[in-house]
Amino acid sequence: MSDYYISFIPEEPNYVPDSKMVEEIKGMAIEDCVQQYFEVSDVMHFADAGENLESIACPFCKADLQEWWGGAMDLAYSGESGFTNLVTVVPCCNQSCSLNDLVYHFPQGFYKVKLTIEPTPDYQVSIEDVCDKLKEVSGMQWRVIHTRV
Known about the structure:
Blueprint: E1 4-10, H1 19-26, E2 33-47, E3 55-57, H2 66-76, E4 87-89, E5 96-98, E6 103-105, E7 109-119, H3 127-138, E8 142-148
Antiparallel strand pairs: 1-7, 1-8, 2-7, 3-6, 4-5
């Protein structure tokens, strides 16, 4: 049986809340989860969907970018510094965009801040409620990443 996690990352990859907000987020009680943890980093990371990933497409022309994407990720990654430059030019229509803005199905994204929960087997977590609480605390929209490993 595979593991399943739900992560919440800010839509803005460089966003880091102040220490008061960090404590509020850490203190959020999320029902129907086995465990939850919150991480804050100085470097940017990538939250992936694992086995859930089905496709990666261009946000402009919707071309399939899965074969190109791995190389673009390698170029954006800088060892101990993590992901440093997300700006790229997509090969299909030669337009500039952020790797964070590609069309990922299932959603994925970049972050310095991430709340992760492991839902109970009966999966009764209200994702909308969690997103609403996070937005209320941070003033920012959050992306939901469903990861199966």
